[in-house]
Amino acid sequence: MTLVLHNFFRSSTSTRLRAALKLKGLDYGYVSYALRKGETRTPKFLALNPQGLVPALEREDGRVLTQSLAIIEWLEETRPQPPLLPADPDGRARVRALANMIACEVHPLNNLRVLGYLAEQFGADEAAQARWFTHWVTTTFDALETMLARDGETGAFCHGDTPGLADICLYAQVWNNRRFQIDTDAWPTIAAIFGRLDAIPAFAEAAPPRQPDAA
Q1: Does 103 fall in a domain?
Q2: pLDDT digits (tens, 9 = 90+) for 124-146
Q3: Helix (H) or strand (E) holding 178
Q4: Domain for residue 215, yes or no?
Q5: In 3-state terms, what secondary structure has residue 4?
Q6: Do 62 and 93 lie in a common domain?
Q7: Same domain for 110 and 51?
Q8: Residues 131 and 148 reside in one and the same domain
Q9: Largest alpha-carbon pair distance within the chain?
Q10: Domain membership flag for residue 192
Q11: Would 124 be classed as within a structural domain?
Q12: Of 13, 116, 132, 200, which one's alpha carbon is 20 to 30 angstroms from that of 81?
């Protein structure tokens, strides 16, 4: 199956999907959109995804999948090896909970659309936007650090010694944090996991600075 990834190098949701595709060993075509230039608001892109958001994964049959976690779950169901979720129900619930802490609690509040709305409607300058971003990252990462540090299910990665869905979300968010000069030193367990992930080619190749449109 030929896949085309519609994405943006700096988008954390795009980073998630790039990492998942690479972990699954799947090749894909790379199509880039500059979000700040409104390239996902054109009629052509809106025909792919009416939300005007990246990533979108276009299949050979023309079907377009949207929402990074939903696409990753589709990959997991159609390309089960290597697995991104544990085999047991308790493990899957834990990994999904860790992933959702980032995907559902940090990312939506710090999305480019939200930061733009803060600027347009409430006059938030770049410094104010950075404080907003940092607040919501810290709120969740403080709890995430505690949960990872105290749980025996945590291994070299978020769940055991094999990277999975939670690690994909964590890796992408840490790269996003760096844009706002948020250092992971305050969260040593998270920092250690990120370091191990960044040493894995599938993750390193998915990182924002290493994409063709990052120059």
Answers
A1: yes
A2: 999 999 999 999 999 999 999 99
A3: helix 165-178
A4: no
A5: strand
A6: no
A7: no
A8: yes
A9: 49
A10: yes
A11: yes
A12: 13
DSSP H stretches of helix in 24-164: 43-48, 68-78, 89-100, 107-110, 112-122, 126-150
Encoded amino acid at 123, one letter: G
Relative to beta strand 4-7, strand 56-58 is: antiparallel
Query: Is pLDDT at 10 greater than 70 in this prediction?
Result: yes
Structure confidence by residue, pLDDT tens digits, 43-92: 999 999 999 999 999 999 999 999 999 999 999 999 999 999 999 999 99
pLDDT value at position 179? 93
8 Å CB contact between 3 and 21:
yes
In this predicted structure, the answer to whether residue 1 has a pLDDT above a threshold of 90 is no
Which of 31, 52, 82 is the endpoint of a domain?
82
For residues 196 and 95, membership in a common domain is answered with: yes
Same-domain status, 29 and 113: no
Q: Clarify whether residues 126 and 62 are in a common domain.
A: no
The dihedral of CA 120, 67, 33, 198: what is its sign?
Answer: positive
End-to-end CA distance of the chain: 29
Distance between CA 120 and CA 141 in Å, rounded?
A: 28
- Specify the 3-state DSSP secondary structure of 176: helix
CB 82 within 8 A of CB 19: no
Domain coverage including residue 110: 89-204
pLDDT greater at residue 165 or residue 215:
165
CA distance 200 to 165: 15
Q: Distances in Å between the alpha carbon of 175 and those of 10, 121, 207? A: 8, 27, 7
